[in-house]
Design goal:
The chain is of the alpha/beta class. 39% of the residues lie in helices and 17% in strands. The protein has eight helices and five strands. Strands 3-2-1-4-5 form a five-stranded mixed β-sheet, sandwiched between helices. Helix 2 crosses helix 3.
Length: 241
């Protein structure tokens, strides 16, 4: 338990218990792990508020209704995708620099379908993320939900969605909860690997993000998925189909 905590201070007693069972063949209940955590002084890292970087368009070219309507479940992969952009900072001396992460999340298995990292929060970043998702999932025609950021209200982006056979959905104004699972993923990533650290070069920050998304998809167990990783949930569906 101490080894798991030292390697990943973000893990609370429930995630420590799940990892003990899955990766170390130690089957104990939550209450026992909680008692040992308290005795050893093991606590998960503090949660932080997520500061979004959405920029609303002054004159949006296309606005979609909130078709998703907070229905954050799906019966199969590629039925519902969420997307957003978030920012990270690194420092060269006292000078602050930014990188932006655009990602698409599947609501069935919570996997990250596609992502791109760039130095500018612009249309190209979002368009390339979408193009990657379509290339890797050519038969997918999901409901595609976002906030009302300027990239998503762009008519070119709406045309790309239509060409891919997707239906567009958008959160209401100033209602982050309408895109809750996507916001939740940003919070998980930043709490577990970003907050409390100071990155002093772009390379290490980008490597952290890339490594974390690989870990999240393939190694991070989630109880709401039945103590599976996103890719395990995804593969089990494909095997049963």
């Amino acid at each position: 338990m101490e080894k798991i905590h030292n390697e990943s201070p973000d893990k609370g007693y429930r995630r420590i218990r799940d990892e003990l069972e899955r990766y170390h063949d130690i089957d104990v209940n939550d209450k026992r792990i909680l008692r040992i955590c308290r005795k050893l002084g093991i606590k998960s890292t503090i949660k932080y508020a997520n500061d979004g970087c959405t920029r609303q368009a002054a004159n949006p070219q296309y606005i979609a209704e909130n078709i998703l309507n907070r229905e954050f479940t799906a019966e199969a992969p590629n039925q519902k995708w969420l997307t957003d952009v978030t920012e990270f900072h690194y420092y060269i001396g006292t000078e602050k620099h930014k990188v932006y992460l655009s990602a698409i999340l599947d609501l069935y298995d919570r996997r990250i379908v596609a992502y791109r990292i760039g130095d500018s929060n612009n249309n190209l970043l979002v368009f390339e993320t979408f193009d990657d998702a379509v290339r890797d999932n050519p038969d997918a025609h999901p409901l595609f939900h976002s906030d009302r950021g300027f990239q998503y209200t762009n008519r070119i982006f709406h045309t790309k969605l239509e060409a891919a056979g997707m239906t567009q959905s958008m959160s209401r104004v100033a209602k982050c909860i309408d895109n809750g699972p996507m916001e939740g993923f940003w919070g998980i990533l930043k709490r577990e690997r970003y907050y409390g650290r100071r990155f002093t070069d772009r390379e290490s920050l980008v490597a952290m993000v890339e490594d974390y998304i690989c870990y999240y998809n393939n190694k991070r167990l989630q109880r709401n998925l039945g103590v599976l990783t996103p890719m395990e949930k995804h593969e089990f569906y494909l095997q049963a189909a």
